[in-house]
Amino acid sequence: MMLSPLAAAEVVNAPLITNDAVIFGILVVLLALVFSTEQSARPLLKGFYKFVPGLLLCYFLPGLLGTFGVIDAEGSNLYFVASRYLLPASLVLLTLSLDLRAILRLGPKVLIMFATGTVGVMVGGPVALLSCSLFAPELLDGAGPDAVWRGMTTVAGSWIGGGANQAAMKEVFGAGDTVFSIWIAVDVLMANLWLAVLLYGTGVSDRIDRYTGADTSAIEDLKSKVGDYQAANARIASTTDLFQILGVGMGAMAIAHFGADLLAPWIQEAYPGLAKFSLTSGFFWLIVIATTLGVLASLTPLRRLEDAGASRVGTVFLYVLVATIGMKMDLMAVVDQPILFVIGFVWIVIHAALMLFVARLIKAPFFFVAVGSQANIGGAASAPVVASAFHPVLAPVGVMMAVLGYVVGTYGAWLCGLVLRSMT
Predict the structure, then answer these.
(1) pLDDT (tens digit, 9 = 90+) per residue, 341-374?
(2) Is the pLDDT of residue 2 over 60?
(3) Are 205 and 367 a contacting pair, CB within 8 Å?
(4) What is the pLDDT of residue 168?
(5) Is residue 274 within 8 Å of residue 280, measured between CB atoms?
(6) Distance (Å, whole) CA 376 – CA 158
(7) Which residues contact 332 (CB under 8 A, 6 or more apart)?
(8) Treating both helix axes as pointing N-terminal to C-terminal, what angle do 177-203 and 205-212 enclose, rounded to 10 degrees?
């Protein structure tokens, strides 16, 4: 039977591996290889990892497999599973060793950097559109649902808050499905490229902090305090310990889903106006409830599960999430609408430049830059990833900032959208 040219092209472009079980196995093997080689004593590998952090490879290697069609990243459900099942459990396990007093001692600079990240997105969008319109004036054509500015409002919602805020902006400013889908690609590619830069920065953060003269004493104190506790109380995990750790993590995940399934629809029906705070989003409540359960558990004897390595189990879950995030990045998407990707690139550069400028001005540690940025750009899925790259005990800081991003996301994106609309 002869295939039509279109059908033949689809067969040629079809991913080589579409079975999620096989893809999952490949991702875990990649993670194992990265961690194994990162700990190698061979001079070549030691020199390589001196400049390329292992976490960055955990992100990029799956991305290359997805970009070149080795695995079906688009059709895979692994990211959904990791973000809905493993992420809540990971947040609880990473929060068991939480020291709230030490986190409060981090001071106001982390909030300043978060606010700077929000302003960077709000200002960066209009400036990027205006600068690119000097070479392509048609970008300022504001008519119709597929106008460029309408799609940009959805990215602003995503980059300040998250998916719920992005969907809200689509409805508020009437973005058409066509432009919306294109800007999703811009959103994913640019956000992931910036995430890669931040992950690289975690490996050289000491040099960056020395250059900027940042005071990292509060961060080091928090890391040292938890490290000393772990060293004094650590024990080899028994089978019982591991099942208790999994029981706490997965049990809290189940409670978080149960609560989110009740709260989000009820608020949507009873108080639909609260959608602007993301309070009608199931994912928002999933993250909030899981984080709250983790904080509460840290005040109980369950905290002693950290002695058996609860945070290490949570870190494994988090790295699986990193791999599933990375595999969805399509480096070739830029070919379809290059001008929109140029706008996205200028936009993220403005955000990054403002973050670095303010950090230098107030002598904020690079950790605050990374977490403050990802709490906006990446949200709850990647902010704890970046935070835990510095130290697992710092993951809750990323979660708390990400939740704040959900709250302010709609307001910031709405104001950005008004400016964009006025320009066209």
Answers:
(1) 899 999 999 999 999 899 889 888 888 888 888 8
(2) no
(3) yes
(4) 63
(5) yes
(6) 8
(7) 67
(8) 80
Give the 3-state DSSP-derived string for the chain, with helices as H, strands as E and coil as C: CCCCHHHHHHHHHCCCECCHHHHHHHHHHHHHHHHHHHCCCCHHHHHHHHHCCHHHHHHHHHHHHHHCCCECCCCCCHHHHHHHHHHHHHHHHHHCCCCHHHHHCCCCHHHHHHHHHHHHHHHHHHHHHHHHHCCCHHHHCCCCCCCHHHHHHHHHHHHHCCHHHHHHHHHHCCCCHHHHHHHHHHHHHHHHHHHHHHHHHHHCHHHHHHHHCCCCHHHHHHHHHHHHHHHHHCCCCCHHHHHHHHHHHHHHHHHHHHHHHHHHHHHHHHCHHHHHHCCCCHHHHHHHHHHHHHHHHCCCHHHHHHHHCHHHHHHHHHHHHHHHHHCCCCCCHHHCCHHHHHHHHHHHHHHHHHHHHHHHHHCCCHHHHHHHHHHHHCHHHCHHHHHHHHCHHHHHHHHHHHHHHHHHHHHHHHHHHHHHHHHC
What is the C-alpha to C-alpha distance for residues 416 and 340, in angstroms, rounded to an integer? 17
Which tokens belong to 132?
């690119």
Q: Which residue, 301, 137, 156, 162, is CA-closest to 233?
A: 301
Q: How many CB atoms lie within 10 A of CB 8?
A: 11
At 187-222, the pLDDT tens digits run 877 887 888 888 888 878 888 888 888 877 777 777
Average pLDDT over residues 110-127: 90
Mean pLDDT of 18-25: 95
Contact 174, 311 (CB under 8 A): no
Q: Closest Cα to residue 384, out of 309, 318, 336?
A: 318
Q: Are 16 and 73 in contact (CB under 8 A)?
A: no
Whole-angstrom CA distances from 408 to 82, 157, 346, 404 are 25, 10, 23, 7
Task: Supply the pLDDT for residue 6.
Answer: 42
Go through the chain and tell me how many residues it has: 424
State the amino acid at position 179 in one-letter form: V
